[in-house]
Design brief:
Elements (H helix, E strand, L loop, with lengths): L1 H36 L4 H8 L3 H8 L5 H12 L4 H5 L7 H11 L3 H15 L2 H4 L2 E5 L6 H12 L3 E3 H9 L3 H27 L3 E4 L8 H10 L1 E6 L2 H11 L11 H16 L4 E4 L5 H12 L3
Parallel strand pairs: 1-3, 1-4, 2-3, 4-5
Helix pairs in contact: 1-14, 9-15, 10-11, 11-12
Length: 298
């Protein structure tokens, strides 16, 4: 009987093993994409997390720790999503949990509509449009175009990176070297909140990875009219090299492949901007004229 029971249970065991393998593969893919969105090499992530590069490679390859699978079984046994057990911070309010469940049932098109309704009901669009934030990777032209746009509009130009350094009391390189990306994210959020509080009208050039920090990005979208400034990958790379700045591609022989991966993984996030400006092959004067037109109230 024991043998018969084992044979009968084998398909279930096989299905469970296949499902768990899929979960680990998805987890590895999420880690890899999240790392790419943030422009982090595996070495940087290893340094900041204290997790070896070897384990990160295994994790991204779908060979994660079995404890994740056990945690998933516990979550399923309680009838709750695994993400709810992995969430950091205090327990959300009942109202937020119920609203989240409602939003989960909506299609992508319905979510866009819901977002517009919330923005109209609770947003401050007129005030938001007076602050123009430029997002996108280095080399797109955010700083150059931002300064020119600010001069045209007669408003202050703010380089968020400088505000982050002032907030932290040290250079960006020192923040990353001494405290890692998590500390940078905290200073980035505080600096942005200070800029919004201090400047009812301004043009703001942001860091390329800001949209990968969802909370900070939502704050930016809610308080600024946002333009995605983009260019062809080759132009991005050429402009960055002309600046003599290869972060985070320093020492990476596959810099262009990394750049394309970052662009691909951030495209959906950048696409949430109010407008998009492609600077590929355009003289600065033409690009700034387009930017003025994009940001003018309709």
């Amino acid at each position: 009987m024991a043998r018969g029971q084992l044979q009968e249970g084998q398909p279930i065991a096989d299905a469970t093993a296949a499902e768990e393998a899929r979960l680990l593969a998805e987890l590895g893919d999420r880690v890899r994409q999240a790392r790419a969105r943030r422009g982090m090499t595996r070495r940087i992530l290893s340094h900041d997390s204290g997790v070896s590069e070897r384990y990160l490679a295994q994790l991204e390859g779908g060979q994660g720790n079995i404890s994740i699978l056990l945690l998933r079984r516990i979550a399923r046994a309680m009838g709750m999503p695994l993400a709810d057990l992995l969430r950091e911070g205090p327990e959300p309010s009942v109202e937020l949990m119920l609203l989240t469940e409602q939003l989960r049932r909506l299609s992508a098109a319905e979510l866009v509509e819901a977002q517009a309704v919330l923005a109209e009901r609770f947003g401050q669009d007129r005030e938001r449009r007076r602050r123009i934030a430029l997002i996108g990777l280095r080399g797109a032209g955010k700083s150059t175009l931002g300064r020119l746009l600010a001069a045209r509009l007669d408003v202050p130009f703010v380089e968020l990176a400088q505000k982050i350094e002032a907030e932290a009391g040290m250079s960006l390189a020192e923040i990353f070297d001494l405290y890692g990306q998590a500390a940078y994210r905290r200073h980035e959020r505080r600096a942005l909140e200070r800029v919004v509080a201090d400047h009812p009208a301004a043009v703001i050039a942001t860091g390329g990875s800001l949209p990968s920090e969802t909370g900070t990005y939502e704050y930016l979208l809610s308080n600024c009219y946002t333009v995605w400034v983009t260019a062809a990958p080759e132009e991005h790379m050429g402009r960055v090299m002309a600046q003599g700045d290869m972060r985070p591609m320093a020492g990476n022989e596959e810099a262009m492949a990394d750049l394309r991966a970052i662009l691909a993984t951030r495209a959906a996030l950048y696409g949430k901007a109010d407008a998009r400006l492609d600077t590929s092959g355009k003289p600065v004067a033409e690009a700034v004229d387009e930017l003025v037109a994009l940001t003018s109230p309709q």
